[in-house]
Amino acid sequence: MRNIPFSPPDITQTEIDAVVEVLKSGWITTGPKTKAFEKGIANWCNTDIAVCLNSQTACAEMTLRILGVGPGDEVIVPAYTYTASASVICHVGATPVMIDCKENSFEMDYNKMANAITEKTKVIIPVDLAGVMCDYDTIFDIVESKKDLFKPNSPIQDAFDRIIVMADGAHAFGAMRNGKKCGSVADFTNFSFHAVKNMTTAEGGAVTWRNHKGIDNEALYKQYMLLSLHGQTKDAFAKNHGTSWEYDVVDTQYKCNMPDVLGALGLAQLSRYDEILDKRHKMIDMYNEAFKDMNLQVLNHHDENSRSSGHLYFVRFLGKGAEFRNKFYHKMAENGVMCNVHFKPLPMLTAYKVKGFDITDYPNAYNMHKNQLTLPMNSKMSFDDAQYVIDTFKKVYAELTAEEN
Ligand SMILES: *Cc1c(COP(=O)(O)O)cnc(C)c1O
What we know:
This protein is of the alpha/beta class. It has 15 helices and 14 strands. It has a seven-stranded mixed beta sheet, with helices on both faces. Strands 7-6-12-11 form a four-stranded antiparallel beta sheet, with no helix packed on it. Strands 10-13-14 form a three-stranded antiparallel beta sheet. It is an enzyme of class 2 (transferase).
């Protein structure tokens, strides 16, 4: 029997050497490595600029704060996602408005999204689930068509003069759609480099944004720096390497910068990222081919116009319920294959139930969730491991369906 962990970090000697170099350099927190990583991210995403912070969650929260979103505002988010997509809305005091999935789809229902837009809506947070980019053309068309409802209440909202689209790209670094890279499609995109993601800095995140009339990229970058480092006008690197110790603190702000140890780890990962993506897509093709005649719905990771980041391999057991899926999960684990479930829709979690959300209002999300399973698929696995996952999956499927009959 093999042991296939769900999502181990893909760390090679390149990453180890890069981290050791920083540890020996005399400078370990935010400085030249993190700045170089930011340039690398922007370059990869075809944007002019990027900011690295210590998580996707911090990137999303700081972006909402910079946009001036707060109490009295509404922010639209899918019900089928991880809590981080929505909790940041609560952190800034705004109200999350959750949207059900389209029937038989992991994507949010864009008609319902359009109908949920009110005069209070400031931001929409589409989630590029499993690394598959959302239909941003439709999202922007809807945002444009509802322009008249928008009531800006900050200078940056004035510059947009419409709802702002802030993607949760936690899964989607490296994804493409219609020839455009994730990070250069939504107004703002927040990426995660958490340990289980495709590309990791252990913990970390980045935000990229598209150029927009009336928005000064350098000024915006400075705002992220202030917000993420106590509102202090000079970071530690500048204080240590400049000619003056003098600084000011302009506001009581947050602390979520990315240290150079992690920036260096990210740079090393980025140098291998083409290879990592390529391997993931080869494995996806292997799984797709192996499962094509089974009674499953698998999430599509590429077509003629798009290629995902290949982050998660989703299957749905058609015609089955939660009991079957749960048994399946345990049987796979007994055979050494660690699977996962993505996600438990937010209205099923205590934090959102107490806010009044109820899963019966999100029937499509529940139906997607109840028979969903995520198979291990990552760049640490060998192709023999992937074959073992396939063989085990088919064996368990045969056993469990035989048991039912
Ligand atoms: C992992 C994840 C996040 C949060 O990323 P962090 O870097 O851990 O803050 C946000 N959204 C989704 C969908 C995620 O899976």
